[in-house]
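Contributing: when you submit paired examples, paste them exactly as shown. First protein:
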Amino acid sequence: MSFARTYLNFERPIAELDSKIETLLELKDEAVDVSAEIAQLREKSVEQLTQLYQKIGPWEKTQVARHPLRPHFTDYRKGLITDFTPLAGDRKFGEDHALMGGLGRLGGRPVVVMGHEKGDTTEKRLIHNFGMSNPEGYRKAVRLMELAERFDLPVVSFVDTAGAFPGRGAEERGQAEAIARSIDKGLSITSAFVSVISGEGGSGGAIAIATADSVLMLEHSIYSVISPEGCASILWRDGARAKDAAKAMKITAQDLKSFGVIDGIIEEPIGGAHRDRADMISRVGERIGAELDRLAQLPPAERVKLRKEKFLNIGRSLLG
């Protein structure tokens, strides 16, 4: 297990233990035998990390879902997709770097893949607009789904966004309409469709590419109609109550699975996906492959019928 060196607030006890390990490693370089102490502290660190993550709440999961070292779309694409050919532009306005996609092979199977990209450096975050897509991003998603349907290719999407970009230009270019068309296309395509919520699943910007046959969530990801901070600002006019909002909104994978909003949960490595990115990417790839194998057994018309019925049932169950 490779530990990330960026700790969240609730991980301070782990940070202190790992700091002691680093100190002892420096002594080891000076020919002082501290191997036993290091082994003991490492064992204690893993044990505490395991216990800590077994009881974290919705707000802590929100922090984990937003961790800067968590695997992003580019990481999953590089780790899982071979022979990748990127496709750019919506053929109407321009290119949107917050939502990327193209053609490639997943385990040898030809697929259309797309997803939100937040970026992992300041420069890249600005280029990718922190994963918040403009209308042309969602129109590109529609273009990719139409391409998949034309050539009978499965679609795989990775959701990781705080929400669609709320800027004036995005609204002027039809943000709501673009999201609605993307949702509609996802519901109606005859291709098999698997979506993975890998970090944040925020509002319409998330569901625009998540109306899939199989919607999977990573264990510590979140999925909601609004951010906890936004919800707290509206309900209590106090963004500081985001922790209360996160608990009330039921945004965790475990809650959403119990409501039938999602279809499955992908377990993360101990301490979150950012602590062992390679293992996380491998787990996601295996689960997507299994879901595509299952969906391939269903006739296209039946897939579409079941997909639409699933999303209608979500509304019925939550309203009823």
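Second protein:
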Amino acid sequence: MRGIQVCVLLLAMASTVLAPADSLAVVTVYFSPDQVATTVATGVTSDTISCQGYEFTYTRDKLFTGGIGPDPIGRPVRITWPTGIEAQYVTSGPAPAKASITIRRVDGAVFDLTSFTAHLLANAGAGRAVEIVPMLNGEEPLNDPLVFDVSGNYGMEFSYDTTPNPWGSTAALTGYDTYVVNLTLDFALTALTLTDASVPSAVGDGLPGAGALVLAPNPAGSRVQVSFAGDKSRAPSRAEIFAADGTHVRTLDLGAAGAAAWDLFDDHGRAVAAGVYHVRVQAPGEPPVTRSLVVVR
């Protein structure tokens, strides 16, 4: 389903410092001819455009001379908007760099990178991977980027979404304000789905018709109270906590009161590292909802 902007009611719980507890999520699907891009900035080796509330900064090998003289001629672009966004490996100039596409919201708010398709513009061979670095407030919460295998040849495409996949999954790319997509050769994004769950909504204050999931304090340094505020007869019985990469960290029994304190230790009694964690609950008869928690050390 390309080239349309659809509104889907998703009860995506984000942390109080990241996004409102409730949202009318807006899912934006790129690319199609009706999506007009506006140039925001032009740099020495990159350009920035905006479209439908998002900005894209992508590398261009503009200083390339072709070996035929001293003057830069730049390398030709093979995939142009709105077919996709091409990123070129910067081969010339004082700072050679990977091909890179940086995605952010125009208003700076958090969003999810739900799915993408990478199109190879050079032979990658075996063992090559797209690296995605999620960022929040100018920092990298994860120790390592998420990797997505693109072992293949020129023209091949590789698609990834939230489905569990040993070659890569976007499930952990939620609740960040910037995503940097890197590859050590030319590539293009030819399909992209971004989910904005930060638009305020008036449909309750948490779980549908039931109540709200509260994390306090957030950020947390030593302990956080996980609690359900609402009809206790519909309160979830437990909370599942996951690291940003999707690894299960801890299960909390919320009991009849619908609340429990998390001491920031995992199920094995080990203190968790600083970073972003996701707390998921599910009320009876309702879909699961998640809020994000920032752990500081």
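If you have annotations for the second protein, write them as plain sentences, like these:
DSSP finds no helices and 20 strands in the chain.
The mean pLDDT is 83.
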